[in-house]
Amino acid sequence: MRLVLSCHFLRVFNFYLRPKSIRASITFWKSQPAPLSSVVKKYFRLVQCKDETCLSKRADHLRAEYSVDTKSSLALSDVWSLIKPHFGWFLAAIISAALVAVVNIQLPLFLGELVDKMVQIIKDQSKGVASNLNIVKPEAVKLLLCYTTQALLTFCYITFLTILGERMASDLRVKLFSQLVLMDMSFYDSQKTADLSNRLNVDVEEFKSCFKLVIAQGLKTVAQVTGCFLIIIRISPKLTLYTVAVIPLVIGIGTLFGALLRNLSRRAQAQFSAASCVADEAFGNIRTVRACAMEQQESRLFEREVRKACSMQEILGMGIGLFQAASNFFLNGIVLSVLYGGSIFINSGEITPGQLMSFLVTAQTIQRSMSQFSILFGTVIKGWTAGARAFQFANLQPTIRNDDGVCIPYNTLFGEVRFEDVEFAYPTRPEHQVFERLNLTIPAGQVVALCGPSGEGKSTITSLLERFYEPFSGRVLLDDRDLRTLNLEWLRGQVIGLISQEPVLFATTIEENIRYGRPGATHSEVMQAAELANAHEFITAFPDGYNTVVGERGVQLSGGQKQRIAIARALLKDPPILVLDEATSALDSESENLVREALDRAMRGRTVIIIAHRLSTIRNADLICVVKNKKICEQGSHDDLIKRKGVYYNLIKSQSNATL
Known about the structure:
Elements: H1 2-16, H2 21-31, H3 38-41, H4 52-65, H5 76-83, H6 87-123, H7 129-180, H8 185-189, H9 193-235, H10 237-244, H11 247-284, H12 286-291, H13 295-347, H14 353-394, E1 417-425, E2 433-442, E3 447-451, H15 458-465, E4 473-478, E5 481-482, H16 488-495, E6 496-500, H17 510-515, H18 523-532, H19 536-541, H20 559-572, E7 577-581, H21 589-603, E8 607-611, E9 623-628, E10 631-636, H22 638-644, H23 647-655
Parallel strand pairs: 3-8, 3-9, 6-7, 7-8
Antiparallel strand pairs: 1-2, 1-4, 4-5, 9-10
Helix pairs in contact: 2-11, 4-11, 4-13, 6-7, 6-9, 6-14, 7-9, 7-14, 9-10, 9-11, 9-14, 10-13, 11-13, 11-14, 13-14, 18-20, 20-21, 22-23
């Protein structure tokens, strides 16, 4: 079995180390299974279950979305950007770690001197015990001081390193999160929430652990090995040759294994992201999972993805273990070569027994340091890959910047919106064009309704108005000013208020959810907005009133209550333009009446854009625009459109049995 497993690994490693190793290796792991032994086949065997076709398609889709990005790499400049603000702690950690290495180097020398003194005592037994103790006392004191200094310095460098690592990880998390929330909507259309969370938490944590190990063990190991080599060269240059002969071989093995292990680490982390996505989707849609009795299927899918990730980690661990085993085998040869060569040089009188002891302990220090380095190698591979994944997103820049552009003075803002020859397709689906030469004017202070068949782009119009996306051609104007010239924070934060079908609430108090529309608002202003939104009465009925925590996504509230809080949030910032995206379609009749009354108050004196599927809710709109075939095909009042007996007439007829 060992022979079969070894042969398999030799075949795999030989494949990965060919010239086009990275790209070829990805293809290998995607397209194989090649003939494997029964021992290794278990790492690729998927769990058999019912509904296999459905689960396979979803699993394949997840793996496609979490495909390995071999282009992402971690630059030293990225690492330096994290170190620079905390350079004092970094310097203190390096100096203390280097001093520990210096002290460790001195120990074999003092130990060798002590051995020589003891050999001298053994040869000359004429002196008394007190005299013998005086002979060894200086070396014993030196050793005691060394051990004490070593302990203090170890405490210092671990403390400094912990502070440095935690602050760097915090900075990286803040930088990554701050950059992610600024990214364009097209970025989020192509990403999974679970993957972003993994990069923010798991990858940053692995990078922090890797960095701390590099300082704590890597630099200390380098310093110790360098110092120990200088010492053994001083003791016996000839004997040093026996020691260094194996070092190039270990370095060569590490270099060859590096490309393979980095690629395996990328694939394993990507697979764990896919598995996390399964869990994230299941927990986020738990009501749907329960309603469809899909608990077992979700568990099987999660098990499948976790097993696959586990298999990749096992193979990665075997690769790291094989490297460590080979390294240790050759490094242990250092001790044998020292003993063999040392016995020859003692007989010839070139070194003393104490010098051989110093040389042997120093050589063992080199051997232990190199062994530690081989163990560190695998952790560094994982951490460096994780850091590359984190910085890949931390270094991204949005194409639509929030802080550029000008603001229109509030007293000169009317709220007229105009679309001129707009052409647009979503970046994730560029082949599917949503609009072709769309032209639409929304007069200031009027209620304009957008309707039409599903999937025609009604909500896309509001997304372009909020400048979540850029049109491919054409312009969107506010009071004759191109949106691209306006400040986005001002546009979204003060000009446009959005009330959607699914109001989004945060896991905090009702007051903070309302104040989210205007963080500087007072408590009385929050209450006033709640009263206008018909929310004050039910809020004060809670024991904690406005301090009631609504739970994740407002789970403690009903649909109508959440909607009224969302209306209060929009009213609090008093926007000149109000967008209602199916704001009442998911409510029962009682809740809809309360929400409708609140919306009627909210719409007064503003430019209002209503997106509706239930056409009965837009009969009183000043202007109704029908979106179909990538453009506005009809517009006018309800009565005008009914008389034309066109698309709007047919939509009304399909939704109502009333006589038209």
